[in-house]
User: Which sequence fits this backbone?
């Protein structure tokens, strides 16, 4: 018997003996041990959650504006434009309201007098109709005057910019003495107390993540805090094949991370 044929029979006999001795043994083609996946490194820029461009609702000349880098608290007045005209309109509106309220009081008094005269038979009952109409018109005058006061107040409030949240002024687009139009961005405010970073991860890496997962973050090789998964977008980007993961950033005390690239590793 040729040598190759002999070895083929020997090999077949070997496997038959193994199967008889171990009937539960399963032979699978291509069996292998799956190696643990290496940790994935993600990288992104830390940005504030709240970042607003603020502008006046009125047009005017700037009389006060902050410096870039100014740290402010919620409710602080950041900038002002000349409000002289707006104040005059407010005074006029309040004066008109006072006059309208006085007219209403007078109309009510006259109507009461008319009602007494009708009871005594001095005046006909049709006179009360005219009195009621006068009171109704006076009430409408008061309502309109209140609307005018509210409108004047809105215009006056629109001559100043108030911080909607605590943070830092990072951009100022106007100078004192310049004219600025309503709605034009005057400055930019960011909230440094709420930071986040968006990172793109492979679908496999994203599967191992869930909301609440935490990881240390590094900047230039130094630990600058930790991050916690806030949102995992339920879609894969068609161009890159990656999934967006948004992390809430918790920097260590004294660490400046806003605007910096940070990295983290997924195990």
Assistant:
């Amino acid at each position: 018997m040729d040598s190759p044929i002999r070895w083929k029979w020997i090999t077949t006999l070997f496997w038959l003996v193994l199967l008889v001795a171990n009937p539960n043994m399963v032979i699978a083609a291509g069996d292998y041990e799956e190696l643990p996946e290496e940790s994935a490194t993600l990288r992104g820029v830390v940005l504030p959650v709240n970042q607003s461009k603020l502008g006046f609702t009125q047009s005017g000349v700037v009389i006060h504006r902050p410096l870039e880098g100014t740290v402010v608290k919620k409710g602080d007045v950041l900038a002002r434009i000349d409000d002289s005209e707006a104040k005059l309109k407010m005074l006029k509106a309040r004066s008109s309201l006072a006059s309208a309220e006085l007219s209403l009081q007078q109309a009510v008094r006259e109507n009461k007098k008319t009602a007494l005269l009708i009871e005594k038979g001095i005046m006909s009952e049709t006179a009360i109709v005219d009195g009621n109409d006068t009171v109704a018109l006076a009430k409408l005058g008061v309502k309109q005057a209140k609307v005018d006061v509210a409108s004047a107040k809105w215009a006056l409030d629109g001559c100043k910019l108030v911080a909607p949240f605590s943070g830092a002024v990072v951009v100022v687009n106007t100078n004192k003495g310049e004219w600025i139009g309503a709605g034009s961005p005057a400055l930019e405010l960011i909230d440094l107390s709420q930071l986040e970073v968006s990172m793109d991860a492979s679908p496999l890496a994203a599967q191992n993540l869930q909301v609440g997962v935490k990881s240390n973050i590094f900047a230039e090789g130094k630990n600058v805090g930790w991050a916690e998964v806030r949102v995992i977008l339920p879609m894969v980007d068609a161009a890159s094949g990656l999934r967006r993961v948004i992390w809430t950033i918790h920097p260590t005390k004294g660490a400046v991370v806003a605007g910096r690239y940070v990295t983290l590793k997924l195990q």
Observations:
- Residues 56 and 182 are 5 Å apart (CA to CA).
- Residues 14-20, 24-38 have pLDDT under 50 and may be disordered.
- The chain has three domains: 40-49+194-266, 51-82+159-190, 84-157.
